[in-house]
Amino acid sequence: DNDRDSPMKAVMGLTSESQIDALRYQVSASIEEHIKDAKLMGAKSILYTNEGLYFLNRTNELRRLLTLFTGIKPEVILFLREAISFRKSLLAQFTRNGFNVDTDGYSFLDFSSDSWLFNYDDRKLFFGNADFTDQCHVRDYSPDGVLEEFLTIIGAKNATVDQEPRLNVSPPEQVTEKEK
């Protein structure tokens, strides 16, 4: 939505409604093109992945995204890191990128322990809303990786991994009492 902040708007320096609308058009056109190409190639399913989707927090944002997938009711796969570890890692990443913490309850920069970003029960309900998705698979993130479980969920049980994936590296035991 144009009336709230988001990582993409901040990183790209988008400040006007016309800039945001232009980006929305560009993203929509890109997704539509990928779907069209997949259908032309005879794809039986389409995998759309984007970490930025986690920052959607309004139903109308999710609804607008899903209108791009006409006739498709998606399955959502959500891997959740341990909340304190995720909060610590995300805060470090955003601080490194020059962002300042914001206490606005709707901000993507609200790192308080009760922020919507770390309220996993609400996140599960949001992404698992039956009005939008057929199924929502929620799994705990494993420090050893999630690739094998992800491949199983999408039905690629016999797929092989050619290289070692990059893992997130701030395990919960490194979080101090103060950071909780």
Q: Can you describe what's shown?
A:
By secondary structure, this protein is mainly α. The protein contains 6 helices and 2 strands; from the N terminus they run H-H-H-E-H-H-E-H. Residues 171-177 have low confidence and may be disordered. The protein is globular and about 45 Å long. 37% of the residues lie in helices and 7% in strands.
What key attributes describe this structure?
37% helix, mainly alpha, two-stranded parallel sheet, 180 residues, 2 strands
Note the main sheet: 2 strands, parallel
Mean pLDDT, all residues: 77
Strand content: 5-15%
Low-confidence runs of at least 5 consecutive residues: 171-177
What is the SS-derived class?
A: mainly alpha
**What is the helix content?**
25-40%
- The gyration radius over C-alpha positions equals 18 Å
**Strand runs, count:** 2
> What general form does the structure show?
globular
* Sheet with the most strands: spatial strand order: 1-2
Fold topology:
Elements: H1 7-12, H2 17-40, H3 59-66, E1 75-80, H4 83-96, H5 120-127, E2 135-140, H6 147-153
Parallel strand pairs: 1-2
What's a concise summary of this model?
With 180 residues, the chain is mainly alpha-helical. It is built from six helices and two strands.
